[in-house]
Amino acid sequence: MPRFVRYLLPLALFLSLAALLYRGLSIDPRLVPSPLVGKSAPVFSLAQLEDPAATVSSSDFTGQVSLLNVWATWCVSCRAEHRVLMQLAQSSDVPIYGLNYKDERPAAMRWLAQFGDPYRANAFDADGRVGIDWGVYGTPETFVIDKRGVIRHKYTGPLTQDIVQRELLPMLKQLQAEQG
Amino acid sequence: MIPELGHFALILALCMALVLAVVPLAGTFLRMPAWVALARPLAWGQFTFLALAFGVLVHAFLVDDFSVLYVANNGNTLLPNIYKVSAVWGAHEGSLLLWVFILSSWTVAVAVFGRNLPEEVQARVLSVMGMIAIGFLSFLLFTSNPFERVFPAPVEGGELNPLLQDFGLAIHPPMLYMGYVGMSVAFAFAIAALLGGRLDAAWARWSRPWTLVAWVFLTIGIVLGSWWAYYELGWGGWWFWDPVENASFMPWLAGTALVHSLAVTEKRGAFKRWTVLLALLAFSLSLLGTFLVRSGVLTSVHAFANDPERGLFILMFLMIVIGGSLLLYAVRAPDISRGGGFATVSRETLLLGNNVLLVLMTVLVLMGTLAPLLYDAFGWGKISVGFPWFNSMLVTFMPLMVLLMGIGPLTRWKQQEPAELVRRLRLALIISVVAGVAVALPLLGDSWSVGLAAALSLWLVATLLTGLKLRLRARGGIGSLWQDFAGRGGRSYYGMWLAHLGVAFFIVGITVVTQFDVEKDERMSPGQTIELAGYSFRFDGVQTAPGPNYKAQRGTVHVSRNGAEVALLHPEKRVYQVQRKPMTEAGIDAGFMRDIYVSLGEPLGNGDWSMRLYYKPLVRWIWFGGLLIAAGGLLAASDPRYRHLLQRQRAGARDVLPAGGHA
After folding, report:
1. What would the mean pLDDT of B65-86 be, rounded to a whole number?
2. What is the reported pTM?
3. What is the CATH number of the domain that holds A157?
4. Which residues in chain B are closer than 8 Å to A21, comparing Cβ atoms?
5. Which domain holds residue A120?
6. Do A103 and B377 touch (CB under 8 A)?
C-alpha cells in the first residue's frame, strides 16, 4: 500500500460516515426503529385505568387484530391525536387498547370524560415500567398487533387522518385477512 | 430595541470571526507581523460582542420580553430567576448561542493564557478557532436566530421544559459545552501544527494543559448529567446509554485517549501522528454529538429540539471541518518525523494499549449509537441497540483497561526490564487476586462480578501505592511528599494518582450498587411502616404544597434504624402550571456509604399512595469517583512546568520557527 493511502484512511472512514448521516437525514426520523416489530408483544399485566381491580394484560391481544396506543394527559400531541383515535374507533371494529403512560389516574379519567373514550380498555402504567419493556421513546406511540399477539408495526408520534386512511386502515384490513 | 442590539452584536461577532480566521493566519505565512498581531484583539472583539449578545438574551428572559419568539416559547413570568437564566440554554437557539459564547471564551483564554506561546503558533491557533466560530455563528444567524421577534407578543410564555427546571440541569449543559468546545482548542493546536508543519514535543506540551482542562469540564458535565438523571427521573438509574448521553461519552473516551497520548508525545516524542489524529477525533466527536442531538437523525429521550434542515447545515459544516482537517492530515502526515523508539516492555507500549482500548470503545459506542440508522439506511430493518449491548461491551473492556492502568505507571519509559516489573507488581497482584477470590466466595459477597470489581479496584489502589512508595523512596522518603508535590512534574504525577484512584471508586460504586441495591414498590397507607434493608420507612401521608410555578403533592416519610431516626424525607410529585407535566422529585437521604431514596408513585385513594423505596449502597462512589477523576485532571493541568514554556522555547527552539517552515 503506498504511504499516502494509509493517511487517507481516516478521511475515507469519515466520508462514509458522513454519507450515512446524510442518508439518515432523508429517512423519516419519526419512524423509530423498534426491535419489537415481528416479535410477540411483551408480557405484562397492569391494573385497568378505569377500574383498579380489573387488569389489562398482553393476553388480551390474542385472537383479534388490535392496536395499543401509548398516551398521557401531559402530552400535547396526544391531544391532537385523540380526535383521530375517536374517529378511528367509530369507523373500524379493531379494538384500541390504551397504555396510559406515566400519568395520574384522576387526570386521565378526566381526560377520557372530557374528550371521549376511544379505548376498549386502558392499562395504567404509572411508573412507565411496562413502557420500558415496550421500548416506548415518547408519547404518543401506536403499536399494531396481529391475531397471534405479534407486533407488526409501530408508529411514533401522533397518528394523523392521513396516516390512518392511507396506511393504517389498509394494514389492519390485511392483517384481519390473515389466518389467526 | 434591545433584542435587535443582540442580533446586531451577533453579526459583528461574525465579522470579527471572518477577519480572525483569515488575516492572522495569512500573516504567519506572509511574514506580516502587523497581521499576526491582530489575532489577540480580534479574539477579544469577538468575545465582547458575543458576551453582549448573550447578555441581551439573558436580559430578555429576566424581563419576560415575550416579543422575542425564543423567550415566548421557553420563558414564563412565574419562573424563578435562576431558571429564567438557565432557560437561555433550554432549547435549540439559546444552546447554540451558549455554544458560540463558550467558544469565544476559550478563544479569549488562548489569547490571554497563551502569551507564553510563540506568536505565530498562537495566531494560527486563534485563526483556526475563528474558523470554527464562523461555522457556528452562521448556523446561528441563518437558521436559528434567537432574537427573532413575534407579533403580537403573547401575554405569557410557554415555559421552560419542567424537566430542565432543576439546579443540576441548569449547570449541566454549560459544563458539558465547556468540555465539548474546549476540545476545539486541542483541535486548533493540532491544525496549527499541521499547517506550520511543525509537530513535536513542544506542540504536545502546549496543547496538553488545554486538553486536560477541557476534558475535566467534560467529565464534570457527564457526572452532573448522570447525577441529575438519578434524582430527577425517579427510578434511581444513573446512566441510560441514550444517544445524547453517548454523544457526550464518545468525546470523553477520545479525550481520555488524547490526554494519555499527549503524555507520550510530550515526554518521548513518539505517537505524533496518532496524537494529532486523536486531537482531530475528539473535537470531531464533539461536533458529531452536536449533529446527533440537533438534527433529529436519532430519536432520544432528551432531543428537545430537532429539525432535519438544521441537520443538513451541521452536516455540511462537519464535512468542511472534519473532512478538511483529515485531508490536511493526509497531506501532512507523511512528513511527520518518527518519534523515539521503544522496547516491547515499556510505558509507551502500555499507553498504546490504553489508547487502542479507548478508541475501540469509542468506535463501539459510536456503532451502537448509529446502528439503528445504519440498519435503516441499508434497509435491513429496524433495530435499537439497548442497554445490555453497551453494558457487555463495558464489562469486556474495562477489566483489561484497569489491568493496564495498574501496570503503566510502574513501567519505565523506553525500556523496562521485565523481571523488575514483575517484582514491583507481585504484591499488588497477590493482594487483588486473593481479595477478589475471597469476595467472590459464598461466605462474603457470593458474586463473581463483585469479586472481579474488588480485585480490580484493589489492584489499582495497590499499584498506585507501590508507585508512590517507589517515587518517594527515590526522592528521600515520605517526608519529601510535599516538596515532590510542589515541584516540577509533581502535580502531573499526583493528578494521575487521584484520577486513577477515582476509577477505583467508580468501579466499586457501580458494581456494589448494581448487585446489592434493594427496592420495593408498595402501596402505603398513612402511618404504615415498611422494612427495607434494615431501615424502617414510616409513611405519614401526602399534603399539597404550592411552589412558585407548580403545585406539589408532598409526602412525608420518616426513616429510622433500630428505633433511631435517620432521615425525614419529602418526595414530591409536581405538576407545572403551564406545561401540565407531572414531575417526580425523589426524597433522598444521601450518604457516603448508602443512599436512601423514596419516590412517590400514584395516589390510590383514601390517602394511600404507591411508593417506591430504594436502598442504594455506595451509589455516591460513582460520582465521587468521577469527581476525583476531574480533580486529578485539574491538578495535572496546573503543573508549574506548563507555565514556563516560553523561556525554554525561546532558549531552545527560537531559530526553528520561521513562519510556514516545514520541519
Report:
1. 89
2. 0.81
3. 3.40.30.10
4. 291, 295, 297, 315, 318, 373
5. 35-177
6. no
